[in-house]
Design goal:
Elements: E1 6-11, H1 19-32, E2 36-40, H2 43-48, E3 52-55, H3 82-94, E4 99-104, H4 106-117, E5 121-126, H5 142-162, E6 166-171, H6 178-186, E7 191-193, H7 202-214, E8 220-225, H8 231-242, E9 246-250, H9 262-280, E10 286-291, E11 294-299, H10 300-305, H11 312-321
Parallel strand pairs: 1-2, 1-4, 4-5, 5-10, 6-8, 6-9, 7-8
Antiparallel strand pairs: 2-3, 10-11
Length: 323
């Protein structure tokens, strides 16, 4: 097996706080191993367009505390097409790229899987605020996102209490409910609406709001997952049924931004370094993961076949605590 001399790194899909920490770790770990490092701008879209730069240690200086991604990111629907996948592999070979680190979510890993099959040693690093990659207990950006959302919901509770309102706060997560569940517990929400768990029984929510008001409760917080959605229309229906002023707040992309937490900086750094170690060992078609207190790796095919739901014990506890 020939020694890898040049690797590249790209970030793909939605940005997540900590991606820069992972990129920094990839670059500096590779340089320490005597490899050359290239950065691919704008994900797979940049790969196809050959937006490729040389990187050194100074390229990632003063980036660990920055949100977003210094390599930029973009969606690339063309990369689903085998012809574009072949073109991507050809571009890698043209630029002498023997190994590639892909930082992103499951869609990004599918692209990495295809490149690996075409002879480019490829390692995936889970970067998504949604925590929806089944093989790992941690994904880069999740910790920052839940802390950002938690702080926002705390502020909304203050004004909700002052005005004796019901507030529906919609958080991100696509069809996964991890952000909603964590914030629902952390913020002491009266209701948490999760994909696959919520039965769409608004009458039960309305009756609970009315009962809480009768026993003197001055506010009501509902954390709603993005996969449920329709927060604004839900707020109108609840207000009409209860007579209680009800507001909807969609936190949106503020959850993607901001300086990453200590956990996201450290874990992302560990994952980035681990990815380079795998490439140095001649590995390909692997995904870095964190499970049972350790950084490990899985075959991408195996990782993509796994499924994941919210933590059932956390969900049961949340039902006991929502009052």
């Amino acid at each position: 097996m020939s020694e890898i001399k040049t690797i590249a790194v790209l970030t793909s899909g939605g940005d997540a706080p900590g991606m820069n920490a992972a990129t920094r770790a990839v670059v500096r770990t590779a340089l320490a191993k005597g490899m050359k490092v290239k950065g691919i701008l704008k994900g797979y879209n940049g790969l196809l367009n050959e937006e490729i730069i040389d990187m050194d240690a100074s390229s990632v200086s003063d980036t660990i505390d920055r949100g977003g991604t210094l390599l930029y990111t973009a969606r690339c629907l063309e990369f689903i097409d085998p012809e574009y996948q072949k073109k991507g592999a050809e571009v890698c070979r043209k630029h002498g790229i023997e190994g590639l680190v892909v930082i992103g979510g499951d869609g990004s890993f599918k692209g990495a899987q295809k490149l690996s099959a075409l002879g480019i040693n490829t390692i995936g690093v889970p970067g998504t605020i949604d925590l929806d990659i089944a093989c790992t207990e941690y994904t880069i950006g999740f910790d920052t996102a839940i802390n950002t959302a938690m702080q926002a919901i705390d502020k909304i509770r203050d004004t909700s209490t002052s005005h004796e309102r019901c507030s529906i706060i919609e958080v991100m997560g696509r069809n996964a409910g991890h952000i909603a569940l964590w914030c629902g517990i952390a913020n002491g929400a009266e209701d948490i609406l999760l994909p696959g768990k919520y039965d769409f029984n608004e009458e039960a929510i309305i009756n609970k709001i009315i009962e809480n008001k009768k026993r003197g409760k001055k506010h009501y917080i509902i954390v709603n997952a993005e996969g449920i959605g329709h927060s604004t229309s839900m707020a109108k229906r609840i207000e009409e049924a209860t007579g209680i002023e009800t507001r909807a707040t969609i936190l949106g992309h503020m959850q993607r931004g901001g300086s990453p937490t200590c956990k996201d900086r450290v874990y992302a750094s560990m994952m980035g370094a681990y990815a380079v170690d795998l490439l140095a060992d001649g590995k390909s078609n692997r995904v870095v993961a964190y499970t049972n207190g350790k950084f490990v790796d899985y075959d991408i095919d195996e990782a993509l076949a796994m499924t994941k739901d919210v933590d059932q014990e956390m969900y049961e506890v949340s039902k006991l605590l929502c009052r």
